[in-house]
């Protein structure tokens, strides 16, 4: 019987040592240490032995069991460790693979123009002002010297909510609002970027919704020279240091005198090309000295205060600056268009 036990021990030891996975190991444990295993078989026969032998066989079979238990335990540890290592190995990330390119957005060309201009004007001490897009007729027209029935309303026909409320046709009503708020006390230096609306038929250069940046300065001793110097800085910031500007007489009800501002063509340096229609100059924006009547209606004493105002068309500036020939490109969210304005341009 003792021999039998030793054979079992040898056989178990070999099997345990050869075992490669936890499941087989567990089967071996059940086999050798369970109730129906070969060791139990031997022990069942112990009653046939005499007392002395029985004690001996009992002792040896216990030793064999302990030995097998120990072997299984240490093998288990080894296999568990190996399982962890295998798992780690199978889950390692190969960091040498090139990463997926995640598409990132870029700044919209209109936002870019607005940001650049905000930078310029904030640097000159201007504040950014905002006003409502659904505006009262009173601010959009009346206070700007365009009473009901005035022919200038034709040019700026817009969308009416009701008799007194409309979608603003220009950012100029913000002038009126800011002046009224200042209660006759200067100075005022603001720019107001924002959306504007007109009942224009959409085509390559017109859109029923577009953006303007209004500028307004009201103070004592403000002259047209100040306006010209300011707009010269604007032209150079947007179109290069060599740009010059010129004023042509024009008409806006809320400015007097009013001017149309041309910038020397950045495409041909003023020599004449298709972009400037061979004139060397590009029509860029409207401006003027705030009409004394407007100053008065908005609470300022025109004897004491003067002001200048200008209205920049953001789409127009962006189209000129980036050579875009269709205003609709700004609104159609076509990635092929937008992707051309990468962040690299910001650097
Ligand atoms: N608001 C005018 C327009 O939309 C532009 C402008 C603004 C002209 C300020 C003069 C002064 O046409």
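Q: What amino acid sequence fits the structure above?
A:
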């Amino acid at each position: 019987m003792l021999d039998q036990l030793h054979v079992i021990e040898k056989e178990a030891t070999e099997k345990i040592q050869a075992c490669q996975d936890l499941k087989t190991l567990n089967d071996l444990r059940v086999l050798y240490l369970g109730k129906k295993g070969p060791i139990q078989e031997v022990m069942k026969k112990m009653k046939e032995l005499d007392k002395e032998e029985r004690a001996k066989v009992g002792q040896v079979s216990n030793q064999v069991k302990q030995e097998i238990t120990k072997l299984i335990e240490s093998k288990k540890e080894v296999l568990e460790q190996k399982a962890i290592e295998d798992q780690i190995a199978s889950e390692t990330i190969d960091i040498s693979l090139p990463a997926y390119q995640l598409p990132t957005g870029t700044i919209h060309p209109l936002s870019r123009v607005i940001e650049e201009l905000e930078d310029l004007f904030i640097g000159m001490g201007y504040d950014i002002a905002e006003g409502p897009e659904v505006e009262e007729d009173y601010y959009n027209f009346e206070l700007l010297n365009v009473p009901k029935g005035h022919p200038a309303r034709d040019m700026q026909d817009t969308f009416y909510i009701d008799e007194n409320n409309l979608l603003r046709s220009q950012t100029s009503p913000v002038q009126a609002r800011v002046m009224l708020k200042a209660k006759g006390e200067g100075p005022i230096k603001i720019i107001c970027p924002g959306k504007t609306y007109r009942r224009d038929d959409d085509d390559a250069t017109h859109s029923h919704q577009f953006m303007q940046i209004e500028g307004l300065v009201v103070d004592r001793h403000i002259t047209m020279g100040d306006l010209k110097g300011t707009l010269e800085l604007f032209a150079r910031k947007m179109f290069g240091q060599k740009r010059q500007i010129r004023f042509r007489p024009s008409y806006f009800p809320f400015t007097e005198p009013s001017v149309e501002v041309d910038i020397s063509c950045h495409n041909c340096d003023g020599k004449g090309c298709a972009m400037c229609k061979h004139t060397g100059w590009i029509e860029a924006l409207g401006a003027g000295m705030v009409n004394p009547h407007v100053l008065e209606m908005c609470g300022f004493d025109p004897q004491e205060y003067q002001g200048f105002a200008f209205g920049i068309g953001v789409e127009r500036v962006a189209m000129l600056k980036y050579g875009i020939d269709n205003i609709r490109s700004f609104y159609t969210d076509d990635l092929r268009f937008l992707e051309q304005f990468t962040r690299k341009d910001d650097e």
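Q: And what stands out in the fold?
A: The two ends are 90 Å apart (CA to CA).
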